[in-house]
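I hope you will forgive my troubling you with a question about protein structure. The matter concerns a single protein, recorded as an amino acid sequence and a row of backbone structure tokens. Please examine both parts with care and let me know of anything in them that strikes you as inconsistent. Thank you for your consideration; the sequence and its tokens are set out here:
***
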Amino acid sequence: MKILDFIKTNPAGNITIFIEKYDVYAKDIMKISEKIMSELSLGAEQVGFIRENHLHMMGGEFCGNASRAFAALLAFRDEKFKVQKDYFITCSGENKKLKVDVREGTKKNEFLAKIEMPQYLEITEITFGNEKLILVEFSGIKHFIYEGVENKEEIIKFLKNFLSKENYSAFGVMFFDLEKMFIQPYVYVNGFANGVWENSCASGTTALGFYLKRFKKIEKAKIYQPNGWLEFSFKEDKIYIDGPVEIVAEGKVYI
């Protein structure tokens, strides 16, 4: 049995567990993560392993919400934090150092965290029968934008097959309702048995931001998600994601 130190965080509904004092590159972190995420354990949508100012996600992917939550955790533990502070972190799936602007919330364990998100590598159009999806590719994850809420399972099955011969860390599908400015995010981490219907997704919101800027001429919007909201905005050619983070609990988990 393993006894691990954990922190449970809530970045805009995208429940994220951090494990510390553990080898962030250990071969068993995917198996550990699956157990931790289950409802019979801590119950979460994703797991990250932290050491000093580095975050390594369970599948080696990049995650904007986890990065925002990690910076909020640093602020929560920072005795000198007052009102606002910039924190610099690194995350798997992204080569450069990331700056996160953390501001205080209404309670000691609540924050707002704004992060500059990575630029996309490529935007391409994918067709599935009569359906059209837009692929916004990043170095750590591939996101597909689909305007609609129908045929979810068929589209996910198609994309798994479409990517089956490619080397990728994770992919997401953002099922988007333009009228309501609402997304239902699905994320699949390569190597896991099942994907996750997430309550919010920062990298998916970033992909949607690039999509909306290019195809709808929208450069700032609050995007509603199943259990929260995230706002994207552009400044010059840089994109930022902002939203709430709550530090929920800390303790030990038995695996």
Observations:
- The longest strand covers residues 238-254.
- The chain has a mean pLDDT of 94.
- Helices lie at 29-37, 64-76, 152-162, 202-216.
